[in-house]
Amino acid sequence: MTICEGAKDMLMILPASMASQQGPHSLFSLPHSSNNASKKRVTLIEPKAGEIYELRRHQFSKGSSFNTQSDLAAEKYHYTANQEPLKSTFLTNEADRKDGRVMEAGDIHFATRFDLSYCLIGYYYGDSTSQDEKEYEQDSEAESAVARGRMNCLTVRDYHDHLVDNHDSQWANVSLESLEMALRKVAEPTEEAGSTFYKLTEGKIIEYLANKVTRLAQNLPKSLNISADLPADILECAKVTLAADLLVSLIPKHTYFRLKRFSPAAGAEHIADIKNSCDRYETYKRSVKQSVEEKELLVKAAMTVGLPTGKTKTSVVKKVTKKSVVVRKQKGSIDGFFKPAKRANPSANP
């Protein structure tokens, strides 16, 4: 067993199609399709033309940022000075236990298929930027103007050069085959003089995303807790709403708002009516909330019947002071008539 020191060795899980290919593969990166400042560039690899994978990283024994403080208090994880988890990786060969490696890093890298169309969507809505996903919570009615240069009608090769010059220089690492596959999904094609021209349009982009939402709503992750007590029609609306919300991490803010207001054309029954589903689900949640609040008020009122409310009416007793009226003696014409008689002197002789 080989012991690897330092962080130079990296464990990478690649698709089976790359196992038979010889020679090194170059990595490149493109701006994140959401135009979100909190999201890093995506690391990509194209082993062959028309096949692009995103290289992701998974760290063992590292909690989420939401639980950082509680994890530190409980000493659940241990980190180095560079905030890297103290963890080793053991890679063994089941057929020969001696054939193995021990790496100091506690993380792995794995490749997953990547849809380049999202990068084209991010380029088209280049003026729709955000600092974090909290800005997606408040719908903005303000229209985001699309630069005229992003609405050009170009061939695949011209589009390739245009993206290299006007978006990111590392588009040069993307093959023309992969770019054309992405353009077919989100751009309007036009045949002229034996050549195919593509033009990015909002209608094509939103329709493509609406189809994604429709398929995703039928296969939502089981980790999403959706109440089984919902009425059947409201349950379907809830699935469509949650499916649209899952795209927040992949598309720009303005694109998300436009997607939430999407209604398919008449006759397009295979695409979900996202606007109607979101409106009905929000209305249902408000009605349930209002009903719960009313029941709580009724229960509270029933429990307080006949009980003092805590505010008793007190009667104020006023102290009455008896006033004596003093009449001042005055001298009048008959005052002398009522003079008191003089008392007799007992010592006087008769």
Automatic annotation (TrEMBL):
This is Ribonuclease H2 subunit B. One of its GO terms (biological process) is RNA catabolic process. Non catalytic subunit of RNase H2, an endonuclease that specifically degrades the RNA of RNA:DNA hybrids. Participates in DNA replication, possibly by mediating the removal of lagging-strand Okazaki fragment RNA primers during DNA replication. Mediates the excision of single ribonucleotides from DNA:RNA duplexes. It holds the Pfam family Ydr279_N. Residues 118-260 form the Ribonuclease H2 subunit B wHTH domain. Residues 13-115 form the Rnh202 triple barrel domain. It comes from the Eukaryota. The keyword Nucleus applies. GO terms for cellular component: nucleoplasm; ribonuclease H2 complex. Keywords: Nucleus. Its main location: nucleus.
